[in-house]
Every structure is written in structure tokens, then in C-alpha cells.
Design goal:
The protein is an all-alpha fold. It has helices spanning 8-48, 66-90, 95-112, 121-149, 155-182, 191-209, 211-216, 232-246, 251-281, 286-314, 316-336, 342-368, 376-384, 393-405, 408-413, 416-426, 431-439; strands at 54-56, 59-61. β1 (54-56) and β2 (59-61) form a beta hairpin. It is globular and about 60 Å long. The chain crosses the membrane at residues 20-45, 65-86, 98-115, 121-141, 162-181, 193-215, 252-277, 289-307, 319-339, 345-367, 388-405, 411-429.
């Protein structure tokens, strides 16, 4: 089965629908994962703590480390499940249905966070695990769609505009939630209820706006899938096996994945831990951290667009490397940031905003050039086992260093190793060779 090539106008309509999914899911990544979940989970866990410790599966854990370990557990689950999901997605023409299904399941799980109160931290951990896993699953499908609706030369720009749209949407909802949380007395709400309502609003936002890409993106037949027998699940396992075996044919893509594992873990851990760092280490109120995160969101819109333009002029790889140098500077400054001083904290937030969207958007579009046709979702599933709120090495290191030192400063600074190692590996990625390897990939007989 073949479909006629899209006109430029048709392609741009699908681009706009695709952008809206970043607008939708950014509500979860900002309001929930980025700002409110970590500090609120710590507060709930502290209510249940005995001698400043809680028991997690029989292991004594400091409440302050619980968010990091929760994200770590979520990523370990993702590492097992997402590659299989990628194989399923590549074998179906109904990618938008998969996108919607995972997004709506994640939004429902996020809505359960509204019921996390008193000392019931276990409910919050389980709900977040499910929501974050669905977030990653939907992102796998969404990013694979990028390869279907855009030409290679468009992808840096399309990906960057998607991230910019996401930061605008996430920032808008966060601004509303900032008003609710910081002025909760005015609305007759306790701070806890204001936080819970904000968590619920993110779930609703995610679910409602997902209808736009669900309705606006066309189904397409799968391409170049492996000729395996059996039902969809059995055939998907077969294709996953072929992909694992054939990955050695794309060493440049694999090298980039290893680099991405390190530098993205650093980025994601900074994002996931920034609100905890601001509240617990620097002593700011939750409302102040929300305001700073709003600044990050606003700056990130322009940062993503600016990085996209720079990539069009200089190429994605050198621009990503510049971004990683800035990340190294950020975590170094964080080691010495004075407690209670708002201006330095805002300056650090602005610096994060400059590089946040740009490095992530370009990593997504750059990787899309290095993978073979017909296996986009599978390769993006491996990509997303290390992506966004699913990092595990960084959060694990952050949690361990905090547990040993009882300070978030050395925990934050320890992340510089991830940027140094990731950047060093990225310098070894040969862009032209990787594109050629993907282009010349042989199509299996009978596909």
C-alpha cells in the first residue's frame, strides 16, 4: 500500500497538529514532574517518616530522596517495556490511536495524584510511576511520527517549533497554577489543596489537548517491517529481535544513543530536581519556585527557536555541544548559589531556559536522521528509555550523593560528569556517515 506524497500545505497542517501534543504533554512535565510533585511528595512522605526515614520495599530512604528514586524506578520499567512498544508501533498504521491511548491513560494516572494527601505517599508514587511510563510511551509514538510528517531537511525546525509550543503551553498552565498556589488563601484553599488542584489541572490539560493531534494526523501504512509470522504481539517481538540484532549495522546511531544516555540524564535530573533544590536547599517558598519555573518556560520558548535557527546555519551537532558547555556552567554555579538570594536563582533559571528546549529539540531531530526507515518507533523507544522524565543514572547518582552528604549542592554538581562524558562521546559521532548508513539500509525481502 502506498499513499500519495503530501503537498506542502498538507504537511504544514499536520505539523501544526503535531505541535499541539507538545503543548498538551508539557502540562505534565512542568506542573507535575518539574515543579509540584517532588516537593509535595517529600512533604507527604515526611508526615509518614519515623526518625526522618521511610521504608520503601524494606529499604530505609530519606524523604528528600524519594522523588529521585521514584523516577529511577519509572525508567527501569521503561527500559524493559518501551522497546517492545516501539516494535508494536512500527507494525501498525494506527500510530495516532496509540498516541492518544497512552496519553489519556497517563492523564488518568496523573489525575489520581489529586488524592495524594495526609501521609499516603505510596499512592503518589504508584500514580506517578504509571503516568510517567505512559508519558514516555506516548513520546515514543509522537517522535516517530515526526519522521513521517516531515522531510529530513525540515526536522530541526519542526522539532524546535514543537518544543517551543510545548514550553508555551506548559508555561501558560504553570502561570495559572502559580496564581492558585501562591494566592491559595485568597481562594479559600489550603496550600495542599491548591497543589492538588494544580496537579489535577495538568492531567486534564494533557488529556483534552491530545485530541488535536489525534484528529489532525493521518494514519500511514507501516514501511520496511521485518517479515515475521503470528499475531501483532508475536510479530512485534520478532521485529524487536531483528532490530536488536541489526543495530550493529548503524554504529553511528548507537554512538549517539550512548552520548544521549549521559547528557540527557544530566539534563533530566536537573529538570526533575530543580524545584526540590530551590525549596529544600535554597529555602524558597513553593510559589517562588513556581515563578522561577515560569521564567524558565518563557525563556525556553525563545531558546528552542533560537537553537533551531542556529542548527540551520551551523548544523545540529555543534549547537548541541555548545548547549552542553552551558549546562556544565549551570551545575557548577549551582554548587555556590547563595541560599535565599532571589536574583542569582532567577539568573540560573534563565540560563536553564536558554539551553533546555534547544538541546532536547535538536537531539530529537538529529537522531531522526540516523535511523532506518520503517523502524522509527523502535529506535525512538530506545531513545526514550533514556529521555525526559525517564532518566535513571542521573537521578540515581543525585539521590545517592544527597543521601551520603545530606546536601543538594554536591548532588547537583555531580551531574557535570554526565555532560562531560556525553559531550565527549558526541564529538565522535560522524553525522554524514550516520545519515549514509541509514539511507543505504537494505529493505528486507518480502516487506
Amino acid at each position: 500500500m502506498t499513499i500519495a506524497p503530501m503537498t506542502t500545505a498538507e504537511r504544514r497542517r499536520e505539523h501544526r497538529a503535531w505541535y499541539v501534543y507538545d503543548w498538551a504533554n508539557s502540562a505534565f512535565s512542568t506542573t507535575v514532574a518539574g515543579v509540584l510533585f517532588g516537593p509535595y511528595l517529600i512533604a507527604i512522605a515526611e508526615e509518614a517518616a519515623v526518625d526522618d526515614r521511610i521504608s520503601v520495599l524494606g529499604i530505609s530512604v530519606a524523604p528528600g530522596a524519594l522523588p529521585s528514586f521514584t523516577i529511577t524506578a519509572s525508567t527501569l520499567l521503561s527500559a524493559v517495556l518501551l522497546p517492545l512498544l516501539g516494535a508494536v508501533a512500527d507494525r501498525t498504521s494506527h500510530k495516532r490511536q496509540l498516541l492518544g491511548g497512552f496519553a489519556w491513560a497517563g492523564a488518568l494516572a496523573a489525575a489520581v495524584l489529586f488524592f495524594m494527601k495526609d501521609d499516603n505517599w505510596e499512592l503518589g508514587v504508584v500514580a506517578f510511576l504509571v503516568a510517567n511510563l505512559c508519558f514516555g510511551a506516548a513520546a515514543v509514538v509522537n517522535d516517530s511520527i515526526l519522521c513521517l510528517i516531515s522531510e529530513p531537511e525540515e526536522r530541526d525546525g519542526v522539532s524546535s517549533r514543537g518544543w517551543a509550543t510545548g514550553y508555551a503551553g506548559g508555561g501558560l498552565l504553570l502561570a495559572l497554577n502559580f496564581v492558585v498556589v501562591s494566592m491559595h488563601d485568597t481562594f479559600g484553599l489550603s496550600e495542599g489543596m491548591a497543589v492538588r488542584l494544580s496537579l489535577l489541572s495538568a492531567a486534564i490539560w494533557w488529556g483534552v489537548f491530545t485530541f488535536v493531534p489525534y484528529l489532525g494526523i493521518k494514519d500511514r501504512p507501516p514501511l520496511a517491517v521485518e517479515p515475521t509470522e503470528g499475531g501483532l504481539l508475536q510479530r512485534s517481538f520478532g521485529q524487536l529481535w531483528h532490530t536488536l540484532r541489526d543495530m550493529r549495522r548503524y554504529p553511528v546511531a548507537l554512538t549517539f544513543l550512548v552520548a544521549y544516555l549521559f547528557f540527557n540524564d544530566g539534563i533530566q535530573t536537573v529538570i526533575a530536581s530543580a524545584s526540590v533544590y530551590g525549596v529544600e536547599e535554597l529555602g524558597f517558598e513553593t510559589g517562588t519556585v513556581l515563578a522561577t519555573y515560569l521564567l524558565v518556560q518563557a525563556v525556553a520558548v525563545f531558546g528552542a527557536l533560537g537553537f533551531g535557527r542556529a542548527a540551520g546555519r551551523y548544523g545540529a551537532k555543534p549547537v548541541i555541544l555548545v548547549g552542553l558547555v552551558i549546562w556544565m556552567a549551570i551545575v557548577t554555579v549551582g554548587l555556590f548559589l547563595p541560599a535565599g538570594e532571589l536574583v542569582p536563582f532567577l539568573a540560573m533559571g534563565a540560563a536553564i531556559g536558554v539551553v533546555l528546549g534547544g538541546t532536547q529539540a535538536l537531539a530529537r531531530s538529529y537522531f531522526s536522521l540516523l535511523i532506518p526507515q520503517g523502524k522509527e518507533a523502535e529506535y525512538f523507544s530506545f531513545y526514550h528509555a533514556m529521555e525526559r522524565g525517564t532518566s535513571w543514572l542521573g537521578t540515581l547518582v543525585f539521590g545517592i550523593v544527597y543521601t551520603v552528604t545530606d546536601s543538594y549542592r554536591p548532588a547537583l554538581f555531580a551531574l557535570i560528569a554526565f555532560f562531560v562524558i556525553g559531550g565527549a562521546i558526541l564529538t565522535r559521532v560522524d553525522t554524514a556517515k550516520g545519515i549514509e548508513q541509514a539511507r543505504q539500509a537494505s529493505v528486507p525481502a518480502g516487506s
